[in-house]
Design goal:
single chain, alpha+beta, Antithrombin, Chain I, domain 2, Alpha-1-antitrypsin, domain 1, six-stranded mixed β-sheet, 22 strands, signal, Serpin domain-containing protein, serine-type endopeptidase inhibitor activity
């Protein structure tokens, strides 16, 4: 099975505040120089060959050593990565809490890593109260060597087939401070470029997402001075594949009265690690990919996903310590392709970051009043059996006595990089087939003592793994 995930964050049109000082600020910028080492173009900096800069390969190879040297060897890179990963999960769950599904977008899928990276890059130029607010929201206020550790984490996750592209577009006449440009390039590989026409920005996005996100922006605001943008892409293959010949149309229970038919993948004897999480009142299962990636599914015992309860009780390190040994069972998982797009100003304001959109102190980027005028996020997730080969399970006889894990009502999911326990994508899937026709009927389900729902035809009861 293949999973394709794309997320793109359009972070800040940092624009001049409407004050007299901003006019003087523009005049001062007109006379400033960029760098002698590089000249900006819409395609990025054109480097002066005489300028000596370290190669990216050398920089990446020394990432872990530099982090431990600067931060003290009493803190291992693994522990620091876990600390960053935990912070990204907390940030992502809080963001989910502040995003509401609607009729047009019943499912919410975000890349907390993408949004986290953009706001972390912004902290390079934030000062005083603004920096404090950002670090607090990112759960990084007490983290030593935060930026160095984040750089090390990015180097680490890129080894696992995760692609991250970053670009900084600058308005005509706007010259950020060299310290900000250099740190952005060193830590985030964010190359500065002159802001081109809208079509060229969309072309960069399309190229960075392998043509899966097109026409991302429909317009630009008047006189933007900076645009920070990144794209995250992951394509993985299940460690144990699903056979597409077993995929059939089956009901998915949106709630107690609404049902929609979805393409349901079936693994008759699928090795799965699953346990009951009493605090979440849910079953938690782990679907590993080849490499160090896993899809974690939280299936509530009821049809309602309580994201507040998940945010309060879900700890990645705790989950990984509680996953039992895999056992073969019948598994059903919806096949879907879903998109999500949202302006994040309201959600970030709800997280205590209203200050970014009114009067932040971004003096580390440039002198003069600047503010964030828009944060846009778009993600796409596809789970299917494309490219999967026929499995030996073709001849397996499905037994009613087999334990079963059936994902046929709303659920929470997380794509996690295992070794650093960093969440790349989070989502609440309420309807895997939003374009399908819903039916109003009473679910014909069998409930076991835990309250889980099951398909009568295959599994009248759920065999829980031994405690």
């Amino acid at each position: 099975m293949d999973v394709r995930l794309f997320a793109l964050l359009f972070l800040c049109y940092c624009k001049q505040g409407w004050t007299v000082n901003s006019l003087c600020f523009l005049q001062d910028l007109q006379s400033s120089n960029i760098s002698d080492a590089a000249q900006l173009t819409p395609d990025g900096p054109q480097t002066n060959p005489a300028a000596s800069t370290p190669t990216k390969e050398k920089d990446e190879n020394s990432s872990e050593e530099d982090t431990e040297e600067h931060c003290g060897r009493h803190l291992s890179s693994t522990k620091m990565r876990h600390a960053i990963g935990s912070g990204i999960m907390k940030f992502g769950l809080q963001l989910l809490e502040n995003l509401n599904a609607n009729k047009e977008q019943p499912n919410i899928i975000i890349s907390p890593l993408s949004v986290f990276l953009a706001l972390s890059q912004l902290t390079l130029g934030a000062r005083n109260e603004t920096e404090e607010l950002l670090l607090q929201s990112l759960h990084a206020k007490t983290m030593p060597c935060y930026q160095d550790t984040l750089k090390d984490l990015l180097h680490h996750v890129r080894k696992n087939h995760l692609q991250i592209a970053s670009r900084m577009y600058l308005g005509s006449g706007f010259h950020p401070k060299q310290e900000f440009l250099q740190a952005s390039l060193k830590i985030y590989d964010s190359e500065p470029a002159i802001m081109p026409e809208l079509e060229e920005i969309n072309e960069w996005v399309e190229k960075s997402t392998n043509s899966c996100i097109t026409d991302f922006l429909t317009s630009l605001p008047p006189d933007p001075v900076m645009l920070l943008i990144n794209a995250v892409h992951y394509k993985g293959e299940w460690l144990t594949r699903f056979d597409p010949r077993f995929t059939t149309s089956e009901p998915f229970y949106i709630d107690k009265s609404q049902v929609v038919n979805v393409d349901m993948m079936l693994g008759p004897k699928h090795p799965l690690s699953v346990f009951t999480h009493n605090e979440l009142d849910a079953q938690v299962a782990r679907f590993p990919f080849k490499g160090n990636m896993s899809l974690v599914v939280v299936l509530p015992l009821t049809s309602y996903v309580n994201i507040s309860a998940i945010a309060a009780n879900l700890e990645i390190s705790d989950l990984y310590s509680r996953f039992p040994r895999e056992r073969n069972m019948q598994v059903k998982l919806p096949k879907f392709k879903l998109d999500f797009s949202r302006e994040l100003e309201e959600a970030l304001t709800g997280m205590g970051l209203r200050h970014l959109f009114s009067s932040p102190n971004l003096a580390g980027i440039a002198e003069g009043p600047l503010l964030v005028s828009s944060v846009q996020h778009k993600s796409s997730m596809e789970i299917n059996e494309e490219g999967a080969q026929a499995a030996a399970a073709t001849s397996v006889v499905i037994s009613r006595s087999n334990p079963s894990f059936t994902v046929n009502h709303p659920f929470f999911l997380a794509l996690i990089e295992d070794s650093s326990q960093t969440p790349l994508f989070l989502g609440v899937i309420a309807n895997p087939n939003p374009g399908g026709s819903t039916m109003t009927s009473q679910p014909k389900l069998v409930l076991d003592k835990t309250g889980l729902t099951f398909d009568k035809e295959f599994s009248p009861s759920f065999g829980l793994p031994p405690k």
